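Thought: the user wants the 3D structure for the chain below. I'll pass the sequence to the structure tool as-is, report back what it returns, then summarize two notable features.
Action: structure_tool
Action Input:
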Amino acid sequence: MSNNVYWFDPETMDPLVNTPGHVRALEQLIKLSKTGPSAMWGWSLGEAWDAFLRGKAVITFSWGDVGALAQLPESSTIMGKVGAAGIPGSTETYDLEKKQWVKWPVDKPNFVGNTVGASWHGVISKYAKNPDLAAHFLSWQSTPQINFWNVAYGWTGLNPGTMYDFLPPVGKSSIDAYKKAGWNEHDATQYVKAYEENFFDYKVGQTYLRIPGTAEYWEIWDIHLSEAVTGQCTPKEALDRTFNDWNGITDKIGREEQKKLYQEAIGYKP
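Observation:
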């Protein structure tokens, strides 16, 4: 039952957000937060990046844009000093079926890649006055030369994701192409290899929640996460509140229809 299951129980559509694995993850996040300034909980994305780019933080976990932004002299003091790696693994995970914690070997932890943010694509409105021109523009953006240009400059919001972004033997790009775009060779190697690790070395990947109401689920989750990180309640209490509110959203939209769409989204067959 638990294969590819992360957000909801596909049989009941009850949220899984307050199960032991999620609770421990939030506890760990709060523990990690104590190593940074308390003000960071109110930072925008740009402010968080700025602290790292100015050398005021040892590490940041964020969107991949920050690796490319580190190559811009006007905003970065760390060019040539950037390290990158795929998302860390865990030596202990919670088994939803057996309802118990599972130990993994220290040298072979459980790795889960993250593809959230890696599926941007153009959409043409049915009200577009020049749909052919819009399609031509999107096709142009997807050409190897233009796509690579977008990937090389962090402020575009595009990150490696195609074969001509990755390095051999995985892909068709080269260090020279990144250097020509203004990258430090060390940084480029670290950055691209981390993406390759995340996409190709991890057997499991977390994807978007792709059902109606996702934005509403996310918003209420953010509110309760904020309550936990600011000490207004415990991590378990915050996630229990999320559980209750998510159930309310599901019932409002229609539980049976949501269950059907969620099962389809994760490839679950009852």
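Final Answer: Structure generated. The first strand starts at residue 92 and ends at 95. The beta strands are 92-95, 100-103, 112-114, 204-206.
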